[in-house]
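step=predict obj=DeoR family transcriptional regulator n=251
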Amino acid sequence: MLNAERKERILSTLEHFGVVKLTDLVEKLNCSESTIRRDLIELEEDGLLERVHGGAKLVKQHNLEPSMNEKSFKNIQSKREIAAYAAEQVETNDFIYLDAGSTTIEMIPFLKDKKVTVVTNGLMHIEKLVQLQIDSYLLGGKMKAHTKAVIGAVALDNIQNYHFDKVFMGTNAIHERSGFMTPDPEEAFLKRAAVHLAEQSFVLADHSKFSEANFAKMFELEQAVIITDFLPEEQNRETFIQKTKIIEVEK
């Protein structure tokens, strides 16, 4: 069983029961106690669970994720400007990954004449890509109806077959210490995997995402360039700039 699949099953078990014993996980996943213990340590470091004596309990999720339709109507002009700039970073014959998201989907019209190949986990994205006759692949896996995103162990396994020149990600929150974050652990695993498979990574986010926190950590600030409309003056600009490159399209 793949490491990512094992962790997903641990989280799924916790979501169902709230708390689980180490011995039960060993039996359920048919793995050694040391392997499960290591998984629990790593998941705790990612903020996805809390280890307790003899097992683990779920960290309660306080952040609810808006639907894809809800996201699409927020800051639409800023998202288009961010997407247009992001598309300029794409070169002819690039092999790219477009994460499911309301800003990344705005990139698609700008890719029409780029002669690129696109992999995506977004159901709404693949429809637009096909309409514009852009060579594209949709990851297989579990469909998340709320956001029209493909996630889960099958998607994680599927994405390992690719290597990307560039990946373009959405995010729900950008935190000075915790990095890029999302409400869904399964999406976090997939986003992290995509970044590890890329030569260059970009996160597309409007100003409202800065200094926010969320449930699941995707990856560190240092691992991606941020393309945003502007960085709000009240935010700790120096902290962000020290950790990563930030491109403000409205400046």
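step=describe
The mean pLDDT is 89.
step=end
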